[in-house]
Write a structure and sequence with these properties.
Helix content: 55-70%
Radius of gyration: 27 Å
Strand content: 5-15%
Structural class: mainly alpha
Strand order of the largest sheet: 1-2
Order of helices and strands: HHEEHHH
Largest sheet: 2 strands, antiparallel
Number of strands: 2
Number of helices: 5
Shape: globular
Length: 177
């Protein structure tokens, strides 16, 4: 009787093992197919700067002795350019966090995410044609970039100020409706 029970247990164990072995193991994850062909400086010059200029140059409040003039996208094409620029900056945050570009896993990553998040707000504002939020998000992108450049600057690569400075101490944004 003991032999029969032992054989039954052994048989059950073999059946479980056979069932578990009938499935092939999942394939190993392939190596990432990307590489970082652009230097950090080239990424800034060729990708981020032109894209962020679309955001920064799109909205402004210009005050002169003749009064206040508000600049904002007017056509669907204008809004599409801003949207595309904001989307590029948002995704460029991921490019800044890639192995080979990220300077560290802490502060650098947080700053790249801050830029990306601010660009995401600009993207949503462009999609909604929300001038005031676009203006404010442009200021946050500028502040994110400036903080990162201050911490990681190599030479004189502080971002150029937007055509109208939109810093925290600036007047509150006004809608150009």
């Amino acid at each position: 009787m003991v032999k029969v029970v032992a054989l039954m247990k052994l048989g059950a164990l073999c059946a479980l093992l056979a069932a578990g072995c009938s499935q092939p193991p999942p394939p190993a994850a392939p190596a990432p197919p990307y590489n970082t062909t652009l230097t950090l400086k080239q990424l800034m010059e060729y990708v981020i700067d032109p894209a962020v200029d679309e955001v920064w140059d799109s909205v402004a409040i210009i005050i002169t002795d003749k009064g206040e003039n508000q600049k904002a996208p007017k056509t669907d094409e204008d809004w599409a350019k801003v949207r595309n620029g904001a989307a590029t900056v948002q995704e460029a945050g991921n490019l800044l966090m890639m192995k080979g570009r990220a300077r560290d896993d802490g502060k650098w990553m947080a700053m790249a995410k801050r830029m990306s998040d601010a660009a995401g707000v600009a993207l949503k504002a462009a999609e909604k044609k929300d001038v005031a939020t676009l203006f404010d998000s442009g200021a946050e992108i500028y502040n994110a970039c400036s903080a990162c450049h201050a911490a990681y600057r190599v030479g004189d690569d502080t971002p150029s100020a937007p055509s109208v400075k939109a810093l925290p101490d600036a007047a509150p944004a006004k809608s150009a409706k």
